[in-house]
Amino acid sequence: MALTEHARVRMADRNISAELVLEIIDTGIIKSAGSSHYWLYKHVPDRMDNLLCVAAVIDNVVVVKTIMHHWEPVP
Fold first, then answer.
1. What order do you get walking across the sheet with 52-58 strand by strand?
2. Which residues are registered as beta bridge partners of 41?
3. H helix and E strand count, the chain
4. Going by C-beta distance under 8 Å and a sequence separation of 6 or more, which residues neighbour residue 27?
5. What is the model's pTM?
6. What per-residue confidence (pLDDT) applies to 74?
7. DSSP annotation of 4
8. How many whole angstroms separate alpha carbon 75 and alpha carbon 62?
9. What is the residue-level pLDDT of the chain in tens, covering all 75 positions?
10. Rounded to whole angstroms, what are the CA distances from 44 to 29, 30, 36, 51, 63?
11. Do residues 40 and 59 make contact, with C-beta atoms less than 8 angstroms apart?
12. Which candidate, 47, 44, 50, places its Cα nearest to that of 23?
């Protein structure tokens, strides 16, 4: 997994660890955002800012572009 600087800043802003990002990637729901871009999201118990979402490009390596909270899937 590679993290952009933007993702690192958002993780710090939202108190989200690298371990939690990996958990969302491994066990969350995946939704295509077009081409090789995806949203991976998950409700995390005990957090008030759900849903947590990882916006990523998945190719030879997962590149995490940003981390979102209070996210809602687009229909």
1. 2-3, 62-68, 52-58, 37-42, 29-34
2. 29, 53
3. 2, 5
4. 42
5. 0.84
6. 73
7. -
8. 24
9. 899 999 999 999 999 999 999 999 999 999 999 899 999 999 999 998 888 999 999 888 888 988 888 888 877
10. 12, 15, 25, 7, 22
11. no
12. 44
Token pair belonging to 53? 């979402």
The whole-number pLDDT of residue 14 equals 93
User: Domain residue spans in the chain?
Assistant: 2-68
* pLDDT, position 73: 81
CA separation (Å) from 2 to 13, 28, 60, 73? 18, 18, 11, 23
DSSP string of 38-50, one letter each residue: EEEEE--TT-SSP
Identity of the amino acid at 58? I
How many angstroms separate the most distant Cα atoms in the chain?
A: 34
